[in-house]
Amino acid sequence: MRFNKFFILSCGVILTACEQKLKIAEDAVKPELTTEQVNHDTDDPAIWINHADTMQSLIIGTDKDTDGALYAFNLDGKIVKRIGDLKRPNNVDVAYGLQFNGQKVDIAVVTERETNKIRIFQLPELNPIDNGGIPVFEGETQRAPMGIAMYTRPSDSAIFAIVGRKDGPAEGYLWQYELRADSAGGYVTAGLVRKFGTFSGQKEIEAIAVDNRLGYVYYSDENIGVRKYYADPAKTNNAELALFGQKKFLDDNEGISIYPTSDSTGYILVSNQQDNSFLVFPREGTRENPNDHPLVGSIPVSTMESDGSEITPVTFGGKFPGGLFVAMSNGKVFQYYAWDSLYKKLK
């Protein structure tokens, strides 16, 4: 999400102050490397880990435009694959082990905003396996899918896509779909299983992240804070579990990444977009309340207006000490950071 009208007007009236807000901090963490440029506008990354050879893992990212594309980058930031002819691809996430054509495959799932569909590509080749796309938010006047996060249920390995949109109702803003293989047609289909999620109505909901291990989904209600729900649609409790980060962000709260330090502990990083920093909250909550996520601190980074990010504790042979953090930045690029460098700046 870019500037709202109020922010643009404020910058026009108080230019010096706004320029100061948008500057990269002198003590900002520098990326280990920056990717090759895409054609239009990077938006959201996902990290696919090749479990057979982690050094062959990929960063999957979108190029958001009517003439947009899905890109695969290697660990050196080089473009190794481009899937074009996508109509404003917005966000992307990956899932592992989808049962398809008699085998388990890994997938990248992308929202295609101008066609009101999600697209599914098999990894690592990025071959489409969705029969041209799966319509979402059918029957709604407000569609335009934007955010997406994948959830894999531990009990049966069922895979779900949780999808957000440009605009929508105050309740039931997110729709959740279970992915299934069509054995006759040889492609993936999806069935709607849940509508949930409160929306303030102030901006939009784009950034969505799932904590598969703990079973939670988080999303950024921009200008409000981060909302938390159970990720499993079979849960009887469909109520909001938490709203945190209120009044902590300069303007938009955006991309969400979850860094585990154990099965149950770690950090939630949320883009403070116009401050060019990431705010950090405890993944496990507090000792008294697992749904209380007080601010731990802030990490200044070299990204400009980061919409989306992803993180993994995998170090890729020590190439990224502590793990790899990938963030979108203005300039048609993604930036790769080592977690250890970010953690040293946590303040």
TrEMBL record:
Q: Which GO terms describe its molecular function?
A: inositol hexakisphosphate 3-phosphatase activity
InterPro entries in the record = 6-blade_b-propeller_TolB-like (IPR011042), B-propeller_Phytase (IPR003431)
**Superkingdom of the source species:** Bacteria
Q: Which Gene3D superfamilies does this UniProt record tie to the protein?
A: TolB, C-terminal domain
The residue ranges of the BPP domain are 19-346
Q: What is this protein called?
A: 3-phytase
